[in-house]
Write a structure and sequence with these properties.
Oligomer: single chain
Shape: globular
Mean pLDDT: 86
Structural class: mainly beta
Length: about 100
């Protein structure tokens, strides 16, 4: 995996970490797939928002800071490529986003 050093963004705590991993794999039906996983040990996503984060205009940021379109656009792109977007998070602990896309035959 590609690991960005601790404290990768100015103003972030020194323990902040971002891991990016790309792997070729087989999905449950046996077809080849490409899996991209991005993990950070940041603030996580509140549990009441997590099921809605791919809906347009849903954001965890304060009003006026974000549009809430990033994950909804990601979901649409992944869907159009017959892929899967999975978001796991624990509030105040981590977030892991996994994108799995089928490989051309």
């Amino acid at each position: 995996p590609f690991v960005i050093p601790d404290g990768y963004s100015s103003g972030q705590p020194a323990h902040k970490r971002l891991d990016i991993d790309v792997a070729l794999d087989r999905n449950p039906s046996g077809e080849r797939s490409c899996r991209l996983t991005v993990f950070d040990n940041g603030t996580g996503i509140p549990p009441e928002i997590l099921p809605k984060v791919t809906n347009p205009f849903v954001t965890t940021k304060p009003a006026g800071v974000g549009t809430g379109l990033g994950l909804s656009l990601c979901q649409e792109i992944v869907n159009r490529h017959n892929g899967v977007l999975l978001i796991e998070s624990e509030w105040k602990a981590f977030t892991r986003v996994t994108v799995e896309l089928p490989m051309p035959k």
